[in-house]
Amino acid sequence: MKVLVIGDIVARPGRTAVLERIEDLRERYKADLIIANAENLAGGYSITPPLVEELLAVGVDVMTSGNHIFDKREAIAYINQQPKLLRPANYPPGTPGNGMWVGQVNGVGVAVINLIGRVFMGPADDPFRAADALLRELDPSVRVRLVDFHAEATSEKCALGWYLDGRVSAIFGTHTHVQTADERILPQGTAYITDIGMTGSHAGVIGMDRDDVIARFLTVTHRRLESAKGDVRICGIALDIDEQTGRARGISRFAIKHES
Predict the structure, then answer these.
(1) How many angstroms separate the CA atoms of 121 and 117, rounded?
(2) CA-to-CA distance for 37 and 64, rounded, in angstroms?
(3) Rounded to whole angstroms, how far apart are CA atoms 130 and 175?
(4) Does residue 258 carry a catalytic annotation?
(5) The pTM is what?
(6) Burial bucket for residue 139 (CB in 10 Å: 0-12, 13-18, 19+)
(7) Tens digit of pLDDT for each residue in 149-185?
(8) How far apart are CA 51 and CA 205, in angstroms?
(9) What is the rounded radius of gyration, in angstroms, for the C-alpha atoms of the chain?
(10) Which of 68, 150, 177, 202 is catalytic?
């Protein structure tokens, strides 16, 4: 099975790039399944239902998220209605939405799990134990298992990769918006990368206008961040997974410049 994972889509530049290039990407990577992190869709903060539905309509199959998913009120009710939009599974009990999607891709059982880190992040339950619980829930026949770990600390991401090696097909990091160069297949067959990068404008600071961000470091009267423009790139990874065993056969990262 070929899986395409698109890194954090940030604001209009990122959305436009995905909308305009998704068919090219599907063909280039022969993707059977496309996953995208959507927590920054709406101006860099959370989602709106129309934006999610627009991306689903053009071929994104499942969307993961992270710490900004509930920044907009409309996300709270909508996430209960849209099973293909995930929030971190290790948020406290009672949080709207689900942290795992299970479905069929070309007749093969697939699970997509969304977790969030605790180091330098907001309050959340233990992602390691949450992963254990979710994997116990899965039918053993669902062998293709993909984990988006939305976390800040490289050490926490790497530790979870080793912890889940051999139990999931791939674990990929999101949140920092800076693609790392450590993609590999771990000894027990799990594909791993610390961060798959960001889809949006690379002319600013992790997708936001550089002057707005610099002002936050220089003054106490900083302004609200607006998204950057220009130098748009689509970042992510392409995975090749053995459908019979769930083990990864390949992982490659990409950072494709997009001219709108």
Answers:
(1) 7
(2) 5
(3) 19
(4) no
(5) 0.96
(6) exposed
(7) 999 999 999 999 999 999 999 999 999 999 999 999 9
(8) 23
(9) 17
(10) 68
